[in-house]
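ZP: hey, is the NDP complex queued? I don't see it on the tracker
AM: it wasn't, my bad. submitting now with these inputs:
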Amino acid sequence: MYANILDGRKISQEIRKNIMDEVHKLKLNYGITPGLSVIIVGDDEASHVYVSMKEKACKMVGFHSEVYKLPKETTQDQLIKLIDGLNHNDKIHGILVQLPLPEGIDENLINSHILPSKDVDGFHAINTGNLLLGEESFIPCTPRGIIELIKRTGEDITGKHAVVVGRSNIVGKPVGVLLLRENMTVTICHSKTKNIEEHLRMADVIVAAAGIPELIKGNMIKKDAIVIDAGTRKVGDKLVGDVEFKEASKVASWITPVPGGVGPMTIAMLLENTLKAAKKKCE
Ligand SMILES: NC(=O)C1=CN([C@@H]2O[C@H](COP(=O)(O)OP(=O)(O)OC[C@H]3O[C@@H](n4cnc5c(N)ncnc54)[C@H](OP(=O)(O)O)[C@@H]3O)[C@@H](O)[C@H]2O)C=CC1
Ligand SMILES: Nc1nc(=O)c2c([nH]1)NC[C@@H]1CN(c3ccc(C(=O)N[C@@H](CCC(=O)O)C(=O)O)cc3)C=[N+]21
């Protein structure tokens, strides 16, 4: 094993500890308890697992947390009414609608019904636009977690080449924007990219977010690259990333494991965003 491991579990624990302290101060000085509402529609098993992880994390740091579990037949209008109520609820500082939503519900439309100041996922068009403009905004949790992991390597990435695999609105695209903000030169690959291996071999930083188990092999990675694997896919009863971990860790300088890499960081960043939303109440 050549690579250093970026231990998302450990880093997220440190972040949570800080959040816990901040929550304590916020309660003591302002009487505010950060509150997060999570809405989940339908009965996708993996989504329910993620939501209960979020709920548990909220409880651990002393947040007020509410989960709304709605049947898959829920209409767009019903969902909007629920969001409207939460927008007006003073106990709630952050609202998250778990994706994907059942067919027939417009995700962008739903996300843009959340007040931008409570949009802790950063998926509202206003937050998305501000991210692109370089203005203050809520930054999506997984991309934020990925940048935090890269920073923890301590390596200077200025002017170096990043290759992102995946262009979704929740991971690939925003992570590309954030890497650009870190002064990297960014290539974004996707399912139509013809010469993906060629791009990968040039990368100083690889961010994998395709959701294809072990798509990226060890021999596609440049020596000493930083490899961040956001992919998570159940194969049998194992959770597998987009990177062939064993081979990749023989060439990369830093690598994230799956599980225990990007996943826990996503949740830590959700807590940070919710804390930030609650703190705005004290300004
Ligand atoms: N750890 C965490 O906290 C999180 C993990 N995830 C995981 O990250 C992965 C991606 O999630 P998400 O962005 O929502 O997924 P999407 O399915 O929305 O997007 C996948 C992206 O990967 C691209 N892609 C698919 N196949 C290939 C291929 N063979 N070569 C290159 N690119 C390909 C797609 O291209 P195209 O656009 O052309 O279709 C698309 O842009 C999943 O495994 C998901 O579980 C997601 C969110 C959080
Ligand atoms: N509105 C919205 N916001 C999201 O942030 C969001 C979403 N929808 N839909 C789905 C994806 C996925 N996601 C994960 C969060 C944590 C882990 C995580 O902590 N995973 C653990 C393992 C968990 C397990 O064992 O299954 C790990 O990687 O170590 C994974 C995935 C957030 N997402």
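AM: back. Residues 49-50, 53, 96-99, 121, 141-142, 232, 239, 258-260, 263-264, 266-267 surround 5,10-Methenyltetrahydrofolate (ligand 2) (CB under 6 Å).
ZP: great, adding it to the tracker
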